[in-house]
Structure formats: structure tokens, C-alpha cells
């Protein structure tokens, strides 16, 4: 007689039934196949091929070769037991010049992806823009140009018509703050400009593009589809409670949070931000009706969180992603543990952010669409990748989500960033965020200890004690 297998230990912190457990990736960071099947360069191909822009001269040309290893990666997702998988659609695969009819081979790749996911019982969550603007659209003016919002709505429409019946959740934009301010003000992301006015124009046109895409999606999708937007909101800490530090935090909150939340959820621009930025722009690029479009209702809000920002009155380094807050804001270094990105580990910041959204956006369901950490991972001689710091990070942050839910935040899911080690933008392949290790020389995938830990959390529906 065989002894029955022991029942899994009861979850100490159980998440609500139906909670969505996922992982997240983005096209340019994992797909590779940069010039296959009609794909043409995006701004990230151009930027990464420009000497000095990306560490070690790395590019996304091959990345994690997901374009050719998609089935293997779906098998990894299945072994984790995830309910959902968040990926992005590469605009230059669908519309290489940013306009005109869709390329069928490009659409076919995503058709296969969503079909295989669904066959594996995994819900596809598609993001339309995770930073790979077709280069031709950037050459024509990029996000500072109004026309780009129209082009994005067209791309949304084509993609939704092709995949609409198979994708449960659609996200318009990923982290428009990064697009506008890292790309057009700090110049550390593509396209690498350092123009404050271009960044503010980009931010507005991203809000407009989001609203136009929501309209296009609603027109093309079945009624039950979920339409969403993902923001990297800033969880703010003040160095002291002085009036000057509070003023610094107000400025960062306006530019980092309310510049997106107010147009999308309230159809207005923050008045204090318009005053703060008066020496840079009169905002005359905002046309009548734009904010009504930007606030076309969504079904949920995606929140990406990695670390809080501590602010004080002072100066930050130039060129700053916060151009219009100068000379009022500095970012002091805080003590405590840090990840390989040199970001502080602070799960309380996630709790505070979710609680703020509970209070400010009642009735808007939330998804944590990214959370995770980079560490210096390597395979040991037995081929095992031990990443206890990542497990501790994930445990702390999931506990924060659990506490936020217990305190009334309507958080419906959690997407761990990331499934695979990948191209971490300006850091190239030097930073590993995956719960699956990728040996970029051989493309061999090795689940890290954190992958086994996450699979056990999902199987239990909660965190162990
Ligand atoms: O890798 C990125 C992702 O593309 C967007 N959010 C933050 C992650 C870690 O930097």
C-alpha cells in the first residue's frame, strides 16, 4: 500500500478566490528576431545600436530568442501554474512603418502565442505599447507629435480585430512616465532626447493615445473584454516633514503621478503642474476635447511597483527625468537593502500606493502588473540558481499586496516581473530580473529557486508562513 502524499501546508496568507497569478514580459526584451517576418527597426533598435547608449553595446537583436522558443516558454509558464501571462505586441512587427495594413506574419506570431496560452489554460494579457515605437514614427516626430496618438489608435484597432476574441485583457500603454521622461527628458531611454518641452508634449500625447486606443479597442472587442492601462506610479517618501521637503514631494507627485492619473480618471490636468511648468510650456498643444478622450473609461488600472522614491528639497543630477522640478527636488540615498539595480527594497511603499489608489479611485479594480527584483544570479556547479534575496523580496511584496487587500484595496492580480532574464533596456543583459535564468550564449533556460517558490505560492493560493 502506498502512503498518501502529504497535503500541502495550509496557506498562512490566502489570497481571494479567483486572484490572478501571472508573470510579465515585453516584446523587445525577450523576442529577438529583430529583422524577421517583416519587422523593421523600432526606436530601441536604433538607440541600442548607437554606441554608448546601452551597457556593453547590447541590443535586442536576439534577446532571449522567445520568437523561436515560444512553445518552450509557454511550457515553463505551465509548470509554474500561472493563471495569466502578460506580454506585449511589437508594433513594428504589425505595422513596420507605423501606418497602413497589418503584416499577417507578425499577427500570426501573436495568434500562435495566444492560442498556445489558451490551450495551456493560461489567460493572455496583451500590452499594446511597451516602448518599441516604429522608428519611422519617431523620425516623423515621435510622441511629442500629436499624429502619433492617431497612429497608435490605428495599431490598436488592427491588433484587436485580429486577436480580440482570444485576449481577455488589453493594456494600452506600459509606463508612459518612462516613455516621456526617460526617453525625451533624461535621454537614458530611446529616443534619447533631453528636451523638457518634448517630454511634456509626449506625456500629453501618450494620455491622448491611451484614450483613442481605448475607443478603438471598445469598437473592435467583444463587450466582456477588459481594457486597462499600466502606470509606474511613484510611491513617495519625504526625507523630513519640512515645508520645503513637502513642496518637493508635491512637485514629484504632480509630474510622476497626477500628470497621468488626473487626465485618465478625471479628464483634467493638475493645475499645480501647469503652474510649475509655466516657464517651459503654456500647454497650448492640449486641444479642446483631448482630456475627455483621455478619460474614456477603463475597466481596471495596472500598477507597476519596484521601489519608493525618497525626496527632499535640493537638486538632482542633470539631465534629470524631472526637468521641470529643478531646482526644487533632490533624491537622497537611503540606508537599507538594495537590489542589483541599486533600488531600495521597501514593500511598505507598495502597500501605501495600493491604499492611496483604493482611496482616490474607488470602484477601479487594480492589478499589480509588474513587481520583482534584479540580483546577481548564476548557475552553481550543479546547475542550480539559488536566489534567496529574490524570494525574500517577492515574499515581502506579496505580503504587502495581501495586507492592502485585507484593508480594502480591490487588487485582482499580481504579475511577477519577469518570467525570463532579459534585455533590461539601458543596462542590456547585465541585470537579471527573471525567475527563470537564461544563459544568453546557449539560450538554455533554468528555473531559479524563486520559480519553484512562486509555483508553490500559486498552488497554495497564498504565502507560506
Ligand atoms: O524591465 C522593466 C520593464 O520593461 C518596465 N518596468 C520596469 C522593469 C524593470 O526595470
TrEMBL record:
The keyword Hydrolase applies. It is an enzyme of class 3 (hydrolase). GO terms for molecular function: beta-glucosidase activity. Substrate binds at residues 29, 130, 174, 306, 417, 424-425. GO terms for biological process: cellulose catabolic process. Its EC number is 3.2.1.21. It holds the Pfam family Glyco_hydro_1. The keyword Hydrolase applies. Keywords: Carbohydrate metabolism, Cellulose degradation, Glycosidase, Hydrolase, Polysaccharide degradation. GO terms for cellular component: cytosol. PROSITE patterns: GLYCOSYL_HYDROL_F1_1 (PS00572), GLYCOSYL_HYDROL_F1_2 (PS00653). The active site is at residues 175, 370. It catalyses: Hydrolysis of terminal, non-reducing beta-D-glucosyl residues with release of beta-D-glucose. NCBIfam families: BGL. Belongs to the glycosyl hydrolase 1 family. This is Beta-glucosidase. It comes from Streptomyces venezuelae. The lineage of its organism: Bacteria, Bacillati, Actinomycetota, Actinomycetes, Kitasatosporales.
